[in-house]
Amino acid sequence: MARVTFYLDDKIVETEVEQGATLLEAASISGIYVNSNCGGEGICGTCKFLIKDGQIERGPAGLLTKEEVEEGYVLACQTKVLGDVKVEVPLETRIEEGQILIDKDAKKLRTIRAGGEEVFFTREPLVDKLYLELPKPSLDDNLSDHQRLYRKIRSKKKVPILQTGLTMLQEIPTILRDNQWAITATLGMMGDTTELLQVEGGDTSGRNYGIAVDIGTSTVVVHLVNLNSSKTVDGEAKYNSQMKYGEDVIRRIIHADEEGPEELHSLIIDDINGLISTLIFRNKVRRDDITSVSCSGNTTMLHFLLNLPASWIRKTPYVSASASPPPIKATELGIKINKGGLVYVVPMIGGWVGGDITAGILACGMDKSEKLSLLIDIGTNGEIVIGNKDWMISCSASAGPAFEGTGAESGMRASRGAVEHVTMNDGRIDYSTIGDGKPKGICGSGLIDLVAELFKAELIDRRGALDPRKSDRIRERDGQSEFVMVPGSKTEIGKDIVITQPDIENLLRAKAAIYAGANILIKSLGLEFKDFERILIAGGFGSYLDRRKTQILGLIPDIPLERIQFVGNTSIIGAKMALLSREALDACHRIAESVTYIDLISYPNYYDEFMAAMFLPHTDLERFPTITQELSREV
Amino acid sequence: MARVTFYLDDKIVETEVEQGATLLEAASISGIYVNSNCGGEGICGTCKFLIKDGQIERGPAGLLTKEEVEEGYVLACQTKVLGDVKVEVPLETRIEEGQILIDKDAKKLRTIRAGGEEVFFTREPLVDKLYLELPKPSLDDNLSDHQRLYRKIRSKKKVPILQTGLTMLQEIPTILRDNQWAITATLGMMGDTTELLQVEGGDTSGRNYGIAVDIGTSTVVVHLVNLNSSKTVDGEAKYNSQMKYGEDVIRRIIHADEEGPEELHSLIIDDINGLISTLIFRNKVRRDDITSVSCSGNTTMLHFLLNLPASWIRKTPYVSASASPPPIKATELGIKINKGGLVYVVPMIGGWVGGDITAGILACGMDKSEKLSLLIDIGTNGEIVIGNKDWMISCSASAGPAFEGTGAESGMRASRGAVEHVTMNDGRIDYSTIGDGKPKGICGSGLIDLVAELFKAELIDRRGALDPRKSDRIRERDGQSEFVMVPGSKTEIGKDIVITQPDIENLLRAKAAIYAGANILIKSLGLEFKDFERILIAGGFGSYLDRRKTQILGLIPDIPLERIQFVGNTSIIGAKMALLSREALDACHRIAESVTYIDLISYPNYYDEFMAAMFLPHTDLERFPTITQELSREV
């Protein structure tokens, strides 16, 4: 045994390992979370440690610079411990505390549950494992190894069309004989066919995990799912690294057109790999036991994921390269799971209504419900779907990332330290943060609450303008007004947490775009908001929204609160349902093919509707009668 | 224009080409056949030319040695002509005249015809091309490019399950728009599914070629087939380069077990690539227009082709890795055709009865005939099948390569210069050669004729022993007897063409193995040779056998000649039928699954039968009554 001493910035951790263990393994045992984007293959440089003292065996240096190697940096995954070792773990190598906070949805969605109505799907994971004991060949039964295996698989499972690649066929004979004809076959559904993805010795059928991914324009969320128990094990999220190339999909498509799509493609692959690494590390799941990935997201994000050309999505008539891509080998995309593993993409409705909405409709059971529903998915784009099991119509409104916390002065993603709820009473501000610690910033739900409370307290007017005469907390800085919600002395970051006049205006623009879009879609069918039995609000805000405050903001129409339901990140819920049930994926295909898309641009009154919705709650107060009454204000 | 002067060993050829043309293109225009194993990719070294003078632009040197480059050798495919050039074409670079002789089967089998009975299959090539003009997208019809293409394909052809790889999906949008939505789709059948293999601009549907391959233990035969007209364009054959690792499959499996299978795999791939290169060069077919390859052969050869482990074929209970491998991408195997092209393998019956026999049964229509037939496929192994449309039983007998001309002192493959027929009258020897030139050696049919004639002329006895007292042509050399058929002065090679005592003994062993095998199989079912309405003799002898002489040899039983039919190389005929007709490939699958295999080793009297058949025509003359009568000899 050898002793490894880890020097972290705030503490020292010691552990004992077998000689020959890697530093990455030692860190794992010690509960030190370390970045490892390449999955321990020694080809990136994210798991770098600094050797202070001791006996090690160095391996490849990956992307470390010459200078770093000379200074004593090594890749933890490639460095073996030969004797007692002292190592420093640099800050950038460690996974941040905030980053590893479990997405609340992950814990919540342990069962497949549709918003409001339960919908049941038969459990049949897209990738499944079968333990098989084959009879040995004899002169009376000397079928080829390939056919012998097929015969056994078919005796256990209905797989009319079974496909196998050449490499598998080359390996099967030896695997069968080395394991006394007792093996586990991993089978992946590829549309109407089934592919034999892996054959391994012994019974590994108890270990089968999947990854559900929601690729948002601003946020990437990943859940780890146990495919045997159908339970969500853990979740993780981060900002989409593509954001440096533009906040919205249009700018990213233009970037791809000008510079090529490869960079955007590899950024999203890296994001997903990083999140998967975090999850398997934290939950001690073997990478080889992850056999499938199901990805949801808007059409542009899914195109970048697959490196499909997105150019024609942004131009009329908004044509995507593929609305229904087939399952792809994870290795072909560079997603680091089992080498035979498959990546599924939730089918898309159109260029501007993606797989996230297909997944949302599935998760809410809209496609099976008699009730007339309105689904609003609030992200960087706001997508709106109305209908029931017989018909569905959708549109998309460009909201911008205001609701995802990015762009705002003190905005942040819904993770540890984010203010998620705000109330104001007689000038006193109460708030709660995710993880209950000191605040670092404000996430989407906190921003909605805050603006609603500012309006209720009359600190902003119907146009959202801050009135410095109403509060000491309103100040002028760099030529613009801002409201100080938490003074720097009480924050984690040592800086004031504020909402600026432009922040408020961005939020109003975002809500106006969505409200106007929903209103136009509904009116075009001769309907009114009150005709809907339920309004489902989806989005990755990090927490449930205060329904009343969304109405004060004018985001959600003034209908009885009991009809409004916050359904969380339905994109990832739907992706997970597909991962766990072939029937659910089949339903996604039917949904994607049946939903009609309406282009808002073709409605000449969209701009007027949008401008009218830029007020709190709306220019036309008759549309928000109970809010108007509640606020009891002269307007 | 630039003038290129080629110096061949026997002549000078001049041509004019555009500046920038390669030397390989210049040679092609001039009708100079050149080896080009890698297909002009500059990675092998087979197309080497020696520059004598002139202006050229050199490219990569491939496998040329440093010395060769210094001496002025270049790769013809990588060297551009910039001005007038003089080049020497070395002998080893040129494709031999003999080598380019068209296999007679190739010309003969322009239609699918079963031996004796015509069997019709619907023309539906395994890989087909469709020219499609797609409607441009509009706001009312903005399906994704992927779905738009599928919709159009399905309007033209019934393809319930259509699959497409990621790379294709990435390329389709640009190809569609660059070609004004008019494209040609190449579709490949993959079992019950169809794969979109290629999408190219414009209408290329008129250019679709396939390659049929028969991989024999000793000889590899390749035919080029026009998939639109169903006509065989040309054929080519060569010895299997694996022969240096053993004449029979057992020795090659042992070699693979000891040294790994890669060498045997790459030898057969190189052989096929070389033959394809010759065919496309000679017929001016573009490599890209070859979309499919169908391979037949014995089980071991097909395993080496796919690099599947063959170890367990040779050990009881003779289990193959796969009897029915799926279609494989040509690029995965390194076979150089269209990069999306597919390689199909004719399904095998068992470890010792391969795809060549499945193809043979198909070609002869045995699986559709009411008649009781006996099919004998004579190659390095002799396979025997008996039965009709209701049942079929097969066995395999190890013959050795005697009938393929290899191993014998003056033996050669059936190609230009081979003696294919021999008659002797009163001591005078008449013979004919393939191509009608001076003889270079004797092929299988010539050896059979010669031995039969020697026996008729009493120059050998019933055990095959040469009697030097009977003829001046029989002489002693290096301690063994031999018969001089053609003196060196009359041959192409300047050497005597002879048959030695061991050659005769090898031929007797080969015919004994096959006759004994057939006899045992038939007896085991309580049948006799006379019960068969037809005896079909298959094999790549290069020419029709003289039926009577096969009976004198004792290879074929003494039944009325009209029941004996020489059906040629049915392995390649069947492979070609599969290439041209999905229905034929489906029939192959049914055949492979329904034929029963009998192991001759399990019959204790096999050795006795074999020994009894080592005589001319047989120990038991009562089995050959008409032969005995004809020869009118006291025995």
Based on the model shown, name its key terms.
homodimer; 635 residues; alpha/beta; Ubiquitin-like (UB roll); Nucleotidyltransferase, domain 5; 6-stranded mixed sheet; 28% helix
CATH topology of one domain in chain A: Nucleotidyltransferase, domain 5
CATH class of one domain in chain A: Alpha Beta
User: How would you sum up the global shape of chain A?
Assistant: globular
Low-confidence stretches of chain A: 97-116
Described by strand count, sense and barrel closure, the largest sheet of chain A is: 6 strands, mixed
- State the oligomer: homodimer
Assigned CATH superfamily of one domain in chain A: ATPase, nucleotide binding domain
Structural category of chain A = alpha/beta
Number of helices of chain A: 17
In order across it, which strands form the biggest sheet of chain A?
A: 12-11-10-13-15-14
Average residue-wise pLDDT of chain A: 90
Roughly how much helix do the residues of chain A carry, as a percent range? Answer: 25-40%
Q: What is the first-to-last residue Cα distance of chain A?
A: 76 Å
Written description of the protein model:
Among the domains of chain A are: 2-94, Ubiquitin-like (UB roll) (Roll); 127-201, Roll (Ubiquitin-like (UB roll)), CATH 3.10.20.880; 366-401 and 508-631, Nucleotidyltransferase, domain 5 (2-Layer Sandwich); 411-494, no CATH class. Chain A has 17 helices and 27 strands. In chain A, α11 (444-456) packs across α13 (547-553) and α12 (501-524) crosses α16 (606-612). Chain A is α/β, with parallel strands linked by helices and 635 residues long. Chain A has a six-stranded mixed beta sheet, with helices on both faces. The first copy, chain A, has a six-stranded mixed beta sheet with strand order 26-25-16-17-18-27. A five-stranded mixed beta sheet of chain A has the order 2-1-5-3-4. The longest helix of chain A has 24 residues, at 501-524.
